[in-house]
């Protein structure tokens, strides 16, 4: 259990001045993609602001991890290799490396090219977050290769990385708090894949909260704006094709 204000006060009230705590896992976040530019810097055609690094750093911190390095690298391979070497050797060895992008089937897939033999690349029946990579390097470092689309990276973090970071800290409550709420409106879901839809909770009737998509017009995995509005993910089973108003939907509550 994390020690928040109530737990610390209870310890103090019981006259306990010293407690043993688990060490925060050391995490390196590597965003991949030659098209990425730090936010605020000038861009040319085909370049986009780098947002996954900030997303993942903040999510790691919320999950109790310590981000010891956050960097973005191009698709060329040498910078990526250098970062992996630094994260897996010497005193700065990381417990966990999280990469984003470069795991699918495009022309430039630096994670796949460089760590193809060390990681397992899978297609998971979820949307977003289909292409995933995971493996343990000889140093013992866990590597999570998340897809590059911003919503895909955020959802993949929650499904695969967050429970691992919590388990590394000895936590047993590995999952987000979940509710079942009726849908406030209808939406379509991807066939054959479990949907994680950025969602908001409609509290207009305090006795009957309802869930609705955070943004109208579907669940594009590139829609970073939907993430900003979301306070939850609505989770819809792969077998469901359409959610109808009133259907009970599983809702994972997000923080911050
Ligand atoms: N032939 C196939 N192509 C794709 C498939 C497939 O199954 N077969 N799956 C698609 C799906 S689904 C996803 S998700 C993406 C994921 O691919 P990658 O992990 O290789 O991601 P990238 O191509 O590197 O990036 C996708 C998209 O996201 C933007 N991006 C990447 N990193 C960042 C960042 N740090 N900040 C902001 N935006 C980022 C990137 O520019 C691309 O637009 O693959 C599909 N293709
Ligand atoms: O799985 Mo991708 O993450 O649908 O966009």
Automatic annotation (TrEMBL):
Catalytic activity: adenylyl-molybdopterin + molybdate = Mo-molybdopterin + AMP + H(+)
InterPro entries: MoaB/Mog-like_dom_sf, MoaB/Mog_dom, MoeA-like, MoeA_C_domain_IV, MoeA_C_domain_IV_sf
Keyword Transferase: yes
Pathway(s) this gene product operates in, as recorded in its UniProt entry: Cofactor biosynthesis; molybdopterin biosynthesis
Enzyme Commission number: 2.10.1.1
Alphabetic keyword roster: Magnesium, Metal-binding, Molybdenum, Molybdenum cofactor biosynthesis, Transferase
Ranges for domain MoaB/Mog: 28-167
Cofactor (UniProt): Mg(2+)
Known role: Catalyzes the insertion of molybdate into adenylated molybdopterin with the concomitant release of AMP.
Similarity comment: family membership: Belongs to the MoeA family.
This protein's name: Molybdopterin molybdenumtransferase
């Amino acid at each position: 259990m994390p020690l928040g204000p109530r737990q610390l006060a209870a310890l103090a009230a019981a006259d306990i001045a010293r407690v043993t705590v688990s060490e925060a896992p050391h995490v390196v976040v590597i965003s991949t993609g030659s098209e990425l530019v730090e936010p605020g810097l000038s861009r040319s055609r085909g370049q986009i602001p780098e947002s996954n690094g900030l997303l993942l750093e903040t999510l790691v911190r919320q999950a109790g991890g310590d981000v010891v390095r956050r960097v973005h690298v191009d698709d060329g391979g040498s910078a990526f290799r250098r970062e992996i070497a630094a994260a897996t050797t010497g005193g700065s060895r990381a417990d966990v490396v999280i990469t984003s992008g470069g795991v699918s089937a495009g022309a430039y897939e630096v994670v796949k090219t460089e760590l193809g033999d060390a990681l397992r690349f899978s297609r998971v029946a979820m949307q977003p977050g289909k292409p995933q990579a995971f493996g343990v390097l000889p140093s013992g470092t866990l590597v999570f290769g998340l897809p590059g689309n911003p919503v895909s990276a955020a959802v993949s973090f929650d499904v695969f990385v967050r429970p691992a970071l919590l388990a590394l800290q000895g936590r047993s409550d590995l999952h987000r708090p979940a509710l079942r709420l009726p849908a406030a409106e209808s939406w379509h879901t991807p066939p054959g894949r479990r949907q994680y839809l950025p969602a908001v909770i409609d509290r207009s009737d305090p006795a009957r909260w309802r869930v609705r998509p955070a943004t109208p017009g579907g669940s594009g995995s590139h829609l970073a704006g939907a993430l900003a509005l979301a306070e939850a993910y609505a989770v819809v089973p792969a077998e469901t094709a359409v959610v109808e108003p009133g259907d009970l939907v599983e809702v994972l509550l997000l923080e911050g």
